[in-house]
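ok so i was messing around last nite and threw this chain in just to see what happens. nothing serious, just curious
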Amino acid sequence: MKIFNKLFLLIFVLMFFACQSEQINDAEKNIDEVKHEYAPDSRVAIFNVSIEKDGGKIILVGETNNLDAKNELLSKMKESEITIQDKITILPSKDLEGKIYGIVNASVCNIRAEAKHASELLTQSLLGHPLRIYKKNEYYYVQTTDNYLGWLNGNELVTMNETEYKDWQDSKKIIFLKETGFSYSKPDVNSTRVSGLIMADLLKYISKKDGFTKVEYPDGRQAYVLSNQCESFDLWKSKTNPTAENILNVAYKFLGEPYLWGGTSAKMLDCSGLSKTAYFMNGIILPRDASQQVFVGETIIENAEEYKKLQPADLLFFGYEKNGRERITHVGIYIGNGKYIHQKGPVVINSFNESDSDFNPSRFRSFKRAQRILTSINKNGVQLVKNCEFYK
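result:
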């Protein structure tokens, strides 16, 4: 009888663990399906959910910034008849105490992969530009106006609650238009500098007199900027004219500038930072990375030998195949006559034409496709600055 009882117990235990193992597999499948639907690109969406086991319990742990994604996952678990304990955190974190908005408070800020200075630089944001904040430790986990996610040093932003954020957003602002410059403590270029400024920085407008514009920083500091180096942000948004000529004229300003991985500012750029900046200064918001920019606009060619079909300001994408999958690693901007400008390190002009002295054979071989942006305004992923919720 004892042997029978032990055998029965063993069979029960094996069946229990087999059943639980099957449930875990089904639960993990549900997690993968929801992640694929709601957060296929972890650079722009948060859905970090996994399974922990506590005895016979299956516990969902992690975080997401999308309540719909969490609800969809819980619904799938119910449909699969999987009993779970929900410990998924919805961001923004309650620890922020309502200060879920941020405004960049440095001429350019560095947003990193991890919450430490030595971490990889992912992207940058600019003075006066808004951020979403999701959580904090010594750093803040933020999302930029192009939806890119990363960690930002708390010294480089001002955190705000909804009322403070609305006040900043509703205030009259100026946009700085030169590649680089300064703000001053007095309406005098020989006075003490308050900070450096770069192209596309935003500051609150106070007044204008004698060739200077008085401005205010997000943290309340006041300064003066040469009026011929800035413009009303509202006026700038209304009159931006995204033509090929205007886009290329911005790109040309950076010829010879060195390369910075993660750079999206006039101080230093990477390849997609160049295309992003050239388009932003003409009123168009592009996604952050080349591998994201390749999905906006309309495809024109997929073979470098067809370059004569291209038009100026078309985006050119380069990469390679690995395990049957395309990897886009580089982007440039077409100029015309087979020429294109790109951040090679430094920014240079190269050619698709083999007879030209600036022909780049490696780029010719690695060309994948060209996307036309200017025929897709407000569609196919192409958004105008003036229509973006962050800049209204």
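not much to say yet. DSSP finds eight helices and 25 strands in the chain.
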